[in-house]
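In the previous chapter we treated chains in isolation. Here, by contrast, the input contains three separate entities that must be folded as one system, with a combined length of 1189 residues.
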Amino acid sequence: MGKRLVTMTVNGETAEVAVEPSAMLIDVLRDELGLIGVKDACGRGECGTCTVILDGKAVNSCIIPVMKAVGKEVWTIEGLDRQLGKLHPIQEAFIEYGAIQCGFCTPGMVLSAKALLDENANPTEQEVRVALSGNICRCTGYVKIINAVLAVAQRMKK
Amino acid sequence: MWEEYLFPRSIQEALEILKSYKGQARIIAGGTDLILELKDRTRTVKCLVDIREIDALKNIEQDGEEIKIGAGVTHSQVASSMLIQRQATVLAEAASVVGSPQIRNQGTVVGNVVSAQPAADTAVALFALEAEAEIASGSGKNLVPLEKLYAGVGISKVDSTAEIVTCVRFKGLRGSQGSAFWRLAQRKALALPMLNVAVVVTLRDNQFEEARIVVAPVAPLPFRSKRAEDTLRGVPISPEAIKLAAEAAADEANPRDSALRGSAEYRKKMVKVLVKRALEQAIERARQK
Amino acid sequence: MEEYSVVGKRLPLKDAAEKVTGRAVFNSDIKLPDMLYAKILRSPYPHARVVRVDTSEAERLPGVKAVLSKNNAPRNKVPVIFGEQKLFNIPLDKVAFDDKVRFVGDEVAAVAATSGKIAEEALKLIKVDYEELPAIFDVEEAIKPGAPLIHQDKERNIAFPMMIRIGDVEAGFNDADYIFEETFKTQAQQHVPLEKHCCVASFDSAGNLTTWVSHHAPSALHELLAEYLGMPASKIRVIKPYLGGSFGSKLDMHIEHIAALLARMAGKPIKITLSREEVFTATVTRHADTIRLRMGVNRDGTLTAIQSYVLSREGAYSYKKSVLGVTAGAIIRFYRCPNTKFEGYAVYTNHTPAGPMRGYGNPQAMFALESMMDMIADKLGIDPIEIRLKNLVQYSSLPECLALGAKKIGWTERKEPTKVKNAKKRGVGIACFTNHSGAAGKQRDYSAAFVKLNADGTTQLITGATDLGTGCNTTLAQIVAEELGLTLDNVAVTAGDTSSVPYDSGAFASRTLYMCGLAAKAAAADVKKQLLLRAAESFGVEAKDLEITGGSIYSKTDPRKVMTFSDITREAAENLSGGALAFLGKASCANPGHGDSLGALFTEVEVDTETGQVEVVKILAVQDVGKAINPMVVEGQIEGAIQQMTGYALTEDVILDPKTGKMLNGNFANYMLLTSADMPNVEVSLVEVAEPMGPFGARGMAEGSTGGVAPAVANAIYNAVGVRLTELPMTSEKVYKSLLSR
């Protein structure tokens, strides 16, 4: 069983990388592409910490075979500010509203928030809570995270 | 964990790959259950056959009265489908509470049936819709009622190394029908259910023409409480009738003691509560139409 | 409260951008050249002698570079962080890779290999002969003489007893008009830090050890490693990069010594990352307690006697005597009562060891105490807030917290439980809570800091503080900035590296902001003094005639006399006639005591009387935090504590296999902590009564509300449906059963 060369679009750029056919997306992103912003907390798709955006949908990269991402578009947290050349409004709001404590859940949380706002630019508080319900946080109690996401929605409306 | 990962472009191609691997290749859709089994080594496989690129499996389709959900359709797609929300409300509700948003984006409704877990949310709803599965294999296509697909807890009669469930299909709900899905769980996301109840009622004037009442996990597969359904057939709608049906369902249900999700005694009692609430809501919805 | 320019402001964290872009490097992101990966073999039995460990086949597996077991591991006891064995004369009880295993998950061997996969394969090749011993799981059974002994050097399964007597409880009970008695049970809880425990250890060719740790107390760990490894501390460097949460689970030496031993054996860097299941089952949990509480009360509601008997489940090893001490302290001194007796035992059982967890003995105590206060109020027909006010200790700021909260939640409207549709009933409850600022008198509690002045007038705070995500790298900088009249940007922070920062006892007991803040403030004041002296000399005035603001020094009497900090440093540098010194402030502070942070927690719940499900509709926390150095950070701490403790109250539990004591729900899927969809509506109100001993009046506050949630919820349930739950967590099944038997 050897590695094979595959191509995918990661954070807006073509990435050609050698992978084991049975590798999970998270391992390829972290170990082959150096994207340490994709965090590993459970390996079973049960906490959302490893969330990335694959073809526009938020998914748990620890249970996505890398082969599912071949030829597809993947966004990790690193893509957000690198693409814009500055912090994404969601990132700015997280900072401003105190939505970050230890920071370990933050990349996944921001991406879930982005996936929500890309689909629903004016969510209710309940919709925000549900959209983030697959991302565990043990530091913040989610309060300021929810506030930050609602604030971004307000701002992006204007 | 596997040596090869393939994307066939047609059902035929997929079946040929399965055949060539002689039981060592397996169908994968979303993989939310399968990947964990492979990680835990409760299953081994040489090749995974991903159905994602097969056009015939990608959609929710309406065919006359029938609704078909292709094997590649995710819980998210079903939850947000206007068609499903209107004509199979119980299924839309079930799909919207599976796992978490990430799991719903990846996992499929058909996969939820094939994983054969007794309380899988969308499977429970599909039972209430009297859904059938279309299965493609080397010997052609077969239409099989869902309840025939369960061999045991977590054990499907579908052999995913040799055949493919291409879709599930059911009759969309008509004007005189209402449905509801109720879940009892320890938290609102990322939780397996303590109890799932799915109900479809057909009303005529002020009577129950028919009711379908599904409860889980109280048996190795989603359980239709025929006793409860019988108490309602042809009976005028009343709180008393609902109460009797709920009691009958609780009587018939046999949940197990679970260290993680509640005692048998408690869950049996909750069957009555949930069936009552689901019936009340389904009736209200049928009447609103 | 004074107005400040930097202190008291809702400033974003200095490292927020690093975290939100995913650039922050945590231990698990560290990769060193030639690094090996280590895995630990764990006991499948709750209690057994380890007769023989044969690692020969594992050692032969290609890729395996080092194997540790009882055959070659040091036999000295593993020291614990607070040095409690020396302080309280309690013997250490753990040897790494011992002759005995004492819980399912206890360490038996460790392997370092070129990949994690190979290390795991190697574990399977290790042959262990166990001789199973009878296991004991129930504390009431374990404490009996003749029960199977878990630690051979003890006579019974008691890690230590704790007896405290004040006044005369018998007389107190005799005097009482009413006596109340109840047994409360609290469950073990898991911290669930999102970042799994991870450690990297590397020796250089001169035998110096560098280790990257995810740990609360690098300075203290530094000492423990030196002691355990038999090395001088000067040859050890402990680095704490970004840390992904801990809440107490990373306060002891769980893997750091193993990594170091393997690194020494293999001659290569070692990384150990625990699996999520290991984090759940093989680190520590909160202490599960059985508390028998008896209180004597006068007709008017004043307390005459408090008697408590507590069995605290230590599990297989005892990490912290102080947890039971805090439990005792809360029961004894939260309210004014002349007669109290506390009898407590830390009981060994064959379970995952109990250790420090946020709140540290307070949640258990307050669940019992604050539940019983409501029981008393109910029986005597006294308002629950009234009865607390009657018994408060004199100097408390609780009356203000209680009054504010009562108004906000609509306390006086709560009398009649409102009936909502579908057999759901609402109720309102309260509970008080307390928080110390550090552990003065109980643990080593001191902190040191340097403040370095750069040539351009900006500064560097060099602190032993440990930021766990708690924001202290920002709030401590705010303190320095305020002291020196600078903006936050002009204070950089060096922390988390024992080779460059001075000593700090560690992040526990809510001491970091308080103690590291005192040290930082004093170090900044020291620099300020040096600056003022230099400027005074330059202006030809006295230092007391000068003031500092906005990075400049002014003469109070002659406004034309102004020098910026960089003017002063340049003048000092250019003065070649000698006497010029680098501007360096230093301070070393011991905890002066004081600094209690009190508060009240109000909650509204909705009970579904048909299912027993309890929904927490709203939580209002009112806490006297002294001066909130950064209100946004302070609120975040309270909100986070509420997430943890609402789970403690209702859904979180370490569910154990009755036959093996093994945790059955050691994963995210089955450990029921709250998601964003479950989180109640939370409001935080900060009361700021300055603590004179604290930096700018601040108090240690981050653990306080942990004590208030469970009893407030229990009291609200009682208000809603008239049932009193005395066992945590208050699951829907338990509530349902209580409703049935009402």
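The radius of gyration of chain A is 15 Å. The longest strand of chain A covers residues 4-10. Compare these points with the single-chain example from earlier in the chapter.
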